[in-house]
Amino acid sequence: MEKMNTNLIADDVVEVFEADGVVVLRDVFTPWVEGVRQAIEENKRNPSWRERTYRPEEGEGCEFFQDYCVWADFSGYRALVVESPMAKIAAQLMRSDTARVFHDHVLVKEPGNSVKTPWHHDQPYYIVDGTQSVSFWVPVDPVPADRTVEYVAGSHKWGVDFKPTRFDGTDLYSADESESVPDVERDRDRLDIRRWATEPGDAIAFNFRTLHGAAANHSSQRRRVTSIRWVGDDARFVQRPGKTSPFFPGLAYEHGAPFSGDQFPVIFPKSQSPQ
Ligand SMILES: O=C(O)CCC(=O)C(=O)O
């Protein structure tokens, strides 16, 4: 079995990730950027059945294209997941022996798109739960600070799973009594909000429980991103009171069972991977 290379990212980066639930990584995926750009164009022409695109009234070309679980279908995404050091970095950040890919979420805000990504955290949307989790938000365009994702540092430790809503504000689960996401905009001054301007090749790594939200794209530049989700050794299946996002129809599993399955392969260490 391949030994984990603990030098890929510095220990203090792991400590920041644990304390804040979010950390920026510079120039880690640069060789995979062009492949992801190509994959996004192919994906937009051939969306999956999970595609969810918001088309605001501004008209043609301003859409917020989203698709899910497509990393294995397009070679540029696949290379980022399987060939880049992402899995190894994920294991290191999660302090996990293994890194299993859960899914990818493609988020393309075209120029002039007016949709804000509302404040939310991802954990309650999912069929998997655990403490070891990380998403890599990987932009393939330069994203200045005024339209990047913002994160509430430390929110992954609040001990609350907030009610999941779709990005249009509707509830994901019909009978959900859980607490709503707090009004982060109102409380900005007392919260520790982090954001970074990013370049293609950079990534922002964040825990599934870290609250985050993003600005609209009122610029004339595209904002193309893929966000890749990973889980670690303690991942377990969880039943939810409705259709999760992403949704996995036909996937049978027991609540609390170890998370597994061919569509969620272990990528690190390599010897465990069916790839
Ligand atoms: O890119 C965005 O607008 C939001 C990203 C996000 O919510 C995520 O990666 O989980």
Structure notes:
The chain has a single domain, classed as Sandwich (Jelly Rolls). It contains four helices and 13 strands. The protein has helices at residues 11-20, 33-45, 75-82, 86-94; strands at 22-25, 64-68, 99-109, 117-120, 128-129, 133-139, 149-152, 193-194, 203-206, 212-214, 223-231, 236-237, 266-268. Strands 1, 2, 3, 6, 9, 11 and 13 form a seven-stranded antiparallel β-sheet that branches. Strands 4-10-7-8 form a four-stranded antiparallel β-sheet, with no helix packed on it. The two termini are 15 Å apart. The site of 2-oxoglutaric acid has 11 residues, from β3, β6, β10 and β11.
Task: Indicate the percent of residues in helices.
Answer: 10-25%
Order of helices and strands: HEHEHHEEEEEEEEEEE
- H/I helix tally: 4
How many structural domains are formed by the residues? 1
Overall radius of gyration: 18 Å
Strand fraction equals: 15-25%
- Average pLDDT score: 94
Tell me, what's the shape? globular
Number of strands: 13
Structure ligands: 2-oxoglutaric acid
Largest sheet: 7 strands, antiparallel
Uncertain spans, ≥5 residues at pLDDT below 50? 1-5
According to CATH, the fold-level topology is Jelly Rolls
Summing up helix and strand content along with how strands pair, one would put the structural category as alpha+beta
Give the terminus-to-terminus CA distance.
15 Å
